Amino acid sequence: MNIYFVTFGCKVNAGEDQYYLSQLIEQGFKEAENICEADIVVINTCAVTETAAKKSAHYISKLRKDNPHLKIIVTGCLTEEKGGELKNYGADIIVTNGSKSKLIDHILNMTDGFIKASEGSFAGGPLSLHTKTKTRAFFKIQDGCDAFCTYCIIPELRGAPKSMPENDVINGFKSLLKLGYKEIVLVGIHIGLYGKDLGITITDILEKLVKIEGDFRIRLTSIEINEIDERLLNLIKDNNKICPHLHIPLQSGCDKILSLMGRKYKKDDYINMIAKARKLIPNVTIGSDIIAGFPSETDDDFNETLNTLKKAGTEFYHAFPYSERKGTKAENMENKVDVKIREERAAKLREQGHISLMNLYKNSIGKTYTVLTEKGNKGHTENYMLVHYDKNIEPNQFVKVLTTEIKDNKLYGTII
Fold first, then answer.
1. What are the beta bridge partners of residue 72?
2. Is 407 helix (H, G, I), strand (E, B) or coil?
């Protein structure tokens, strides 16, 4: 039986899909190269925004129309919102986030699972085999969120914070190393909350992982500014096994808008923490998520966000226009920003982000980085720059690359 996974949304979904695919292959399934070769397709949906929800729903409908005999299994955040209604879109089997821990059983038995996320258990785990030629493994160690930002519905779709037990993380991490993965990305819906339900912290588990023997590196996904402390920064500084790249969601660089969003920090907290990170970790790079055009955001508020990002020196921008989400407090807020203005502001953010990235590239010329090779003679440095190099090297190798030039907005280097 050939099976194919389609992943929408976050890296948590990607980590789940890697895990469940490896489990199914152990059960005798074969990974299809594409949908045309598949007997079963599993769609892990996203519903963080209305646009994402519509995109997932449309995909299900189109897939059913184009493949009337295909078995379609739908899981992920959209199932928490729409439930059995997804049968009308073309789903054969529906497995909600709360039932996802039993996804394998539901696939084997072709049964639905409708447990709500708030009542479900932790879903996912480490891969049991190396799928295809991927160089990095997305290892889900945390799920759920209780931040309740005014624009976000994720706490409703994913439930309260849940963590993988500490020993399971350590053993799972070791098993990924045995499979040959050299970069392991620790993922979670709110990774900084790892261990909240266990009485430990994300730094506690990292301190144990870096003591494991082997040639590997750990990359963190998005972590909130108020979950970063000097202990974590010093751990990154003192251990080359942790990538010096922090993706810190800002969302807005204006205190007025941050308050309306329900964010639990101010712009100066972001600026000061990044300054501290740069002082302790010289080659650290910073990425951020930014929402443009949140209700009540004026031109001055938006320019304040631009200035905050410039002052902090953020290099990697993930900017997008605000999108109303049903069921959130922000949906009913007054002083909505015109959709066209939202899009224009998001475009300005991306433009500034491009300039920041090019400046990072320029400042990197003549320096040597450790690159994990990927297909196509390229790979990522420890601080997340994508470098194209001059030799044909098999994927999943650590090489030293001297950066030499920027051409067509791409960074190039020579393997030394």
1. 41
2. strand
What digits encode the pLDDT tens for the residues 150-203?
Answer: 999 999 999 999 999 999 999 999 999 999 999 999 999 999 999 999 999 999
Please give the sequence-ordered ranges of beta strands (E in DSSP) within 268-328, or none if there are none. Answer: 285-292, 316-321
Q: Are 57 and 78 in contact (CB under 8 A)?
A: yes
d(CA 91, CA 113): 13
The sign of the torsion formed by the CA atoms of 60, 61, 63, 68 equals: positive
Strand partners, 374: 378
What are 44's strand-pairing partners? 7, 75
C-alpha dist (Å) from residue 180 to 26, 135, 306? 18, 9, 42
Residue with tokens 């209700």: 295
Q: Answer for the pair 127, 171: CB distance below 8 angstroms, yes or no.
A: no
The CA distance from 206 to 170, in Å, is: 10
Q: How far is CA 196 from CA 75, 124, 186, 249, 362, in A?
A: 26, 18, 16, 20, 40
Tell me the C-alpha distance between 189 and 350, whole Å: 24
Q: Tell me which DSSP letter residue 266 carries.
A: -
Q: d(Cα 218, Cα 206) in Å, to the nearest integer?
A: 9
- Return the structure tokens found at 87: 């049968």
Contact 98, 75 (CB under 8 A): no
